[in-house]
From TrEMBL:
<dbReference type="Pfam" id="PF06949">
    <property type="entry name" value="DUF1292"/>
</dbReference>
<protein>
    <recommendedName>
        <fullName>UPF0473 protein KII88_06990</fullName>
    </recommendedName>
</protein>
<dbReference type="InterPro" id="IPR009711">
    <property type="entry name" value="UPF0473"/>
</dbReference>
<comment type="similarity">
    <text>Belongs to the UPF0473 family.</text>
</comment>
Length: 98
């Protein structure tokens, strides 16, 4: 998982060419799917603000970093369920928000 003290950002470009800056919420590896995942929130959101969290499969380089080109859409429903379960566990742990 990413270091909570060091916020990292990534810029995503939508189909209209608009750029949006996201903060990396956390990353994790799934042994079940043998893949790494990254979860993103729009940059500058307040802790109590409701937002859409973006989740992707990602292929980090040897330094653990990735660019937008390294992000892959999650298309399998069972894989989505697993990612949502990890996210809910993360959100339920108050220690992640200190």
């Amino acid at each position: 998982m990413t270091n909570q003290n060091e916020i990292q950002n990534i810029t995503l470009v939508d189909e209209n060419g608009d750029e949006t800056l996201y903060e990396i919420l956390f990353t994790f590896h799934s042994d079940e799917y043998s893949k790494d995942y990254i979860l993103l929130v729009p940059e500058g959101v307040e802790d109590d603000e409701e937002v859409d969290i973006q989740a992707y499969i990602f292929n980090p380089d040897e330094n653990g970093e990735a660019t937008e080109e390294d992000l892959i859409q999650i298309e399998d429903d069972k894989e989505w369920d697993m990612v949502e379960e990890v996210l809910n566990t993360f959100l339920d742990d108050d220690n992640n928000f200190e």
